[in-house]
Design a protein that fits this description.
Five copies of one chain form a homopentamer.
Chain A (H helix, E strand, L loop, with lengths): L12 H5 L15 H9 L19 E8 L2 E7 L2 H10 L4 E7 L4 H10 L4 H9 L5 E5 L3 E11 L5 E10 L3 E6 L7 H9 L9 H14 L1 H21 L4 H33 L7 H66 L26 H23 L6
Protein name (chains A, B, C, D, E): Magnesium transport protein CorA
Keywords (chains A, B, C, D, E): Cell membrane, Ion transport, Magnesium, Membrane, Transmembrane, Transmembrane helix, Transport
Subcellular location (chains A, B, C, D, E): Cell membrane; Membrane
Chain lengths: 401, 401, 401, 401, 401
């Protein structure tokens, strides 16, 4: 899990800049090693709700954004007590507590208690491998998991988990990364002119979910760009195993992407079915928009899958074509020279013109003794070659590949 | 997004005229570059409902058709104020406001307010990449998206978005193109003898949706024509990579077409499920007819997909056949001449007939000293050749390909 | 759309008689040209319910069968007025109006009005390309479309549309063909001993639907027969492109058949869900029987599809096998004779036995001067050949193919 | 339809004994000829409920088992009248009328009337090709169809139809075979200690359905055994067309089996949904057990399908491997001897050492006159061979296959 | 069914240690022999609920854990009577009766009666081949089947059945193995600090189900590890049949795993739909967590399936590549030396320079008599070789593979 893409305003340019090393980049494998990693890290036989900090987790940083229609405050707290005091002192504000990094078990347990998070949900947060999902708890609170994607310079899809817990006047977000793709939401909060400041925390949860979903598009665009590069390589270069590995790796990425997007769609469909008291109708309009985006992302992934499959077909046909070409060279050269060799071998035989009695045997290779023998033979050979060349030309073996 | 097909009355002839340059036309790629383009243009992290004009959008032109059972007026307005005034002054008429081109943000915002369009819908209009869908808003108004297809001279499916917003006495249509395929509806309005003048705006929305769907058939017919040309090429020509690329490109087009038609069917199915107060039963009869057409278009696409897959099989088998043919030529020529070369090489050996003591060694290659040696050898060679030819003939290698 | 099979009592024999020209019959293409034809004929942008007569439609012939439990009359009318008068005069009878051929627009419009047919349904009738479907209109009347199949001598599936409109005391059937497969129903009506004379028109509609469905079986049997012929050809003959084309053509036919049968099943399932007042329970028992038949036809089509796929696998493996065989011949002959050629070439070298000083150089090719040189060499060559033959025999290259 | 497996107590041993002739058994085809047969025998255009005896149907034999908790009688009746009289005389007993063979139309019609069987059901009985299904009639009576499978010595799945009609105090079973797999139920009835004697006829119907389903397992086990034999053949033998045909035939069998089992599962699921008055809850518990078995049989079939697909992959890869091997032999031998032939050919040239003026031309092939020429050449040849052998060894062409 | 993995605390390390012998381990087959074994052992035609002990079943051992919030006792009983007495004497405690091994029919029947187990369920327990399922009986008791997986050193998935029967104050678990993966639950019970001691037996059933599901992850991780090893082998080694067999075997394992997990998911979904009185809402929260895990396991299996399919593609392409390479070597060597052989053969011809009359024939092979003939020829040969090498180099045949 590397550091995710910086929240740059033009996210599509980053992958574009990484296009060059495409075929030269080290191969990271065509099997889904992230899946195996996930299986390996799964805790076995634990009490449900047991909190465990994954190895390599970052020390937590706490950011609190407090806002109302007319107020905005944003601060990183180094002491949780201070943060909690501030939160307690402002029940009238809405709060977004942004937790980045999990490596403090005591803090995590404290957060769980203070914000009323279910232990099973907290386990999902820390496990970091939960598919996108939504759970309703305490009648009208939501636990939402999204997966943020990023297309790395190693041509792999890197995904990080964003977990959201909503409450009556707060949203707690969890991610095990200091950089994220949520800055556009922060900026909208800061700017103060947007709906987001007037609406309930569930709208903030929507906005965060939406921005994660929006980031699927640059990932897909990057994959699409690489597919086009692969297509160019196939058209211009020779088929080789590295190219095939790249194609298969890209296929893995697309399959992985689909596995990320599909539950996202399911999640939003489930949100749309939630009762009015959990997600109000006016917010559902926005989630419906999300839903359209998720379906469109699935469409894109399907489309890429078809492209990869076509590239595979083209690659394999090319491989077969090259064999054909090799065989044609062999056939043309052999077909021309093997008969010629026979003919010249014929006249290399040592049949004797003189019989033992000294008389001349006119049956034994008289051609060798004709004055025009050699030129005639050369002419014959030229005729043979010409005939074969015409035959091969007519078959199209000399011109088209 | 090129200029769409002119609203000619015989749309199927245009693709027919483009058949000739089929294989010579520049390849436009077998991966779905339009999908990548779409992903790349997706706005990331914006406030929902933010209006952005896509690059390359056309300056808007406004056409207003106002009609009732006994009245018809049609005019292009260069000033929106005039148009609005006319619309305001005639609440008793039904109006079709036809907006072509989006490149005026202020105007778009004005339209949004005046005609009560939801910002998320307006965003979908301007984004120009929305799948076919229907949304109900304000209890009984519809927001409809259709995608108009066109099969270009580059053998690509070009699709444009048609967005419709209905109101109690109007329909607003949006498209980012000056030419479209809606003239048949305009003519029906002009003619005055049709139901369309007597019915509510929702019927006009139906008529526009229907005409877009009808235009899928010429697109499909053009694809079908090209598939037949490809089939002929495979049967008559030699397999080559360009032909394979064409096949794969056509496959991409069909997949793309399916991706366009499928949501269209879903959309109409959803319309058929809408309550009576949104879409009256008498109009649903017509949408049911649309639904049959959409299913038929899906059937066609499936059928073409099967055809393409069969062409692929045929192509690959041909490629293998050609290798077979090359190998047979090599095998026949080698099998005939390599043994002959051995025989003549045999009699080119220099085993000495004379022993060192001058006596004659009758064991060493006596054939060379026979008067009938050479003719006998030629006969032997002819026999070998004949035997092999018979063998190869029986195997069918000389006749069938 | 050729003339359909005559209503012969043994429909399975016709295809059987056509088996011989199987591989010699002209290839009619492996892509679905009928589908493209359909797309091409689709009317674009017309007012819904516009009636258009398709090119090549036949002049209509009108047959009226009037019956009750104790009465039967059957007549072809050349004047519609007479027919209408007769129908009007006998409201107590049940009538089957059998319209064959559509090429009279005025008559079609008259029928539409007199028998209360919805314009959209009439459009479906004349369009002749509607999938099987059922529509309920006027509360309890049915519009039914079936597709009659026929397997032609060109090894293609030909399908014709049968449209039925039911009323309180009549059924109107439409088909654009003078011959059809409905004679068995007519005979049952004529015979007078069957339920059909006692039951309501909806039962007649069932009987007509059922007989169409029953005719799917001879079509399937004919396809099955051809698949067996193809299988025999593959087992006994050599793979060639014509055979592959036949396989792919048969695959197209099966896919086409499935596309015809699947909506038939959907149609009947929908009939079974209709309320009691539209289709009475006692008639549904019979439609349930139809449903079983439709599912069985789908099963058959699936089974044939698997068979074709297995034949493809076998064909492709054979193609590969033949290449293998060619390569083995080449390898065996080359492997045997190329070494031999080397050996005899060796003894064709001109190394001099005599040194310049006239002494004998016993190192230079002394074999050539041995009295047993030549026989020994021949023995060596025979040994080499024997060794290789044993090697190839052990590898099984000489025996199994 | 051959005579089914005898009701031996160890049904799995029969297929095991037939394993040996596997590859030698005559090929019965890789397309589904039984399906075509079925299509061919379908009656076309008949009045529904018309009873027709299939060709080859057996003369009927009638067996009646009458039982109650404390009574048991079993007899074959040669006169139906006697049977009917006995049945009439014992309304207090439960009866199982076991009809084997249909070839007596009058008897069949009599049975239909006496036991109140619906004509459409009777048609299904005699047609002998009905998929597994359940119909409820007369409010609470069941018509059940099961298909009994058997794996024949010809490696084909043979299936026979068992039709059951339940009544208040009887079950009538129909099958067109004298031997069947129902003896275990008969024995349970005879033994008298089981529930079956105490329960209603519907429980008997369950018991018969269950025993048919149980017999799917030996069929599957036999197929599984053959798949293992095929796997061994592929691993140990050479790929040949007969083996491929076997694989494809086995695939057909599995597909056929799935087509038999799938409706069985549907049937039982439908039984489980029937109301209490038709199938009482206490019997449903047993049908639920059947349902688990049907699902498990489907699982097995899926598993075998995967196995066959893997065997195909292995076979095709082997075929390719063998080509590779052939090519390697050719390449090694050609690569070694063709250069050698060139070298010895070189020293077979006749360039003259003596100039016309009698002087010696030291440029023309001086090697031929060196005393060490020949041994040096032999050394060179040996070096070339050694070099190539090392090259090929390093490439692994000499060792691994 | 071998002895399952010991209940070691670090289950993922065991497979890791077995990685080395991967390719050397004996092949256990690519077809699913366990499925055939299952089909073969199926009892045919038995009375439902007949209890049969499978061959190889272990002698039963009985463990009883009795607990409440404040009490814990654990003991192995060698006499069932003692156990039963203890159980009877403590109705206030909750009991987990852990039965390992079934080989005592009388005991099994006793257990069935004492704990009110349904005979059909007991049959499922002893059959040991039941898919995961849940049945509700006696209104609110559950019969649960889970399948415990283990990845063996033979690279096979071994699965054992765990059957659970719940009652008001007990859970009976059945397994035919002395070692299991349930120790973590036992430890949680022993430790006394967990919820499990306070909750109802249904929670214990959940905990046991959950721990089985958790053990799917190490199995999957082991499969994933092997896939990575296979990937490395393909990249570094040569394609050979053993590698292909491994790939196909791994595919079989994954398919088998999916067949195990899928019903597990269905089972838990069914539990979540059970009414409150059977599974209380507070326990369902935990089962929902299970459900997420089951879906994730399915995802993993899908991902591995894709990986295996990519490895197959890579393998087959490699196989084709190697053929290509072989052909290139043959073509290069043949193309270079066959023409050379012709040239030197040409100058090995015996055309006579001297005419019969003693004059010199300057037409017959004058090159042989030129002083520079031989060096010029050598130069020509070198030129030919150089030309060809350049040609092949340009084609890339000399460098890239």
């Amino acid at each position: 899990m590397t550091t995710a893409s910086s929240p740059s305003p033009e996210p599509t340019t980053a992958p574009a800049a990484e296009q060059e090393p495409l075929v030269e980049a080290p191969l990271t494998g065509i099997s889904d090693r992230a899946a195996t990693q996930q299986a390996r890290e799964q805790q076995v036989g634990q009490r449900p709700g047991t909190l465990t900090i994954r190895e390599g987790s970052l020390p937590p940083r706490l950011f609190l954004i407090s806002y109302s229609a007319h107020f905005f405050a944003e601060q990183e707290y180094h002491s949780y007590e201070e943060l909690w005091a501030y939160y307690q002192a402002h029940p009238d504000l809405k709060h977004w507590l942004d937790v980045r990094g999990y490596n403090n078990l005591a803090l995590m347990q404290r957060l769980m208690q203070d914000f009323g998070i279910h232990p099973l949900h907290m386990e999902d947060v820390l496990g970091d491998y939960q598919r996108a999902k939504v759970d309703v708890f305490d009648d009208n609170r939501l636990f939402l998991v999204s997966r943020m994607t990023d297309f790395t310079a190693q041509l792999e899809i890197d995904d990080d988990q964003l977990s959201l817990v909503t409450g009556s006047n707060f949203v707690v977000s969890f991610q095990d990364d200091y950089d994220d793709c949520l800055d556009s939401v922060r900026n909208r909060l800061r700017s103060g002119f947007t709906m987001i400041r007037h609406k309930s925390p569930i709208y903030l949860a929507y906005a965060l979910t939406d921005v994660v979903l929006d980031h699927y598009y640059p990932t897909m665009a990057a994959i699409g760009d690489y597919i086009e590069i692969l297509e160019d390589r196939i058209f211009n270069g020779r088929p080789n195993r590295r190219l095939l590995s790249r194609i298969l790796q890209m296929k893995k990425d697309i399959v992985r992407f689909r596995r990320l997007v599909y539950p996202e769609r399911e999640k939003i469909a489930e949100i749309l079915r939630l009762p009015e008291n959990v997600v109000p109708e006016e917010t559902k309009v926005f989630f419906k928009d999300c839903y359209d985006h998720a379906i469109q992302a699935m469409d894109l992934a399907e489309s890429y899958r078809e492209s990869i499959s076509s590239l595979m077909d083209l690659y394999l046909s090319d491989q077969s074509n090259r064999m054909n070409e090799v065989m044609k060279v062999l056939t043309i050269i052999s077909s021309i020279f093997i008969p010629l060799s026979f003919v010249v071998g014929l006249y290399g035989m040592n049949f004797q013109r003189e019989n033992p009695d000294g008389t001349i045997n006119h049956l034994n290779m008289p051609e060798l003794y004709e004055p025009w023998g050699y030129p005639a033979l050369l002419g014959l050979l030229a005729l043979i070659v010409a005939g074969q060349l015409i035959y091969f030309y007519r078959k199209g073996w000399l011109t088209n590949r």
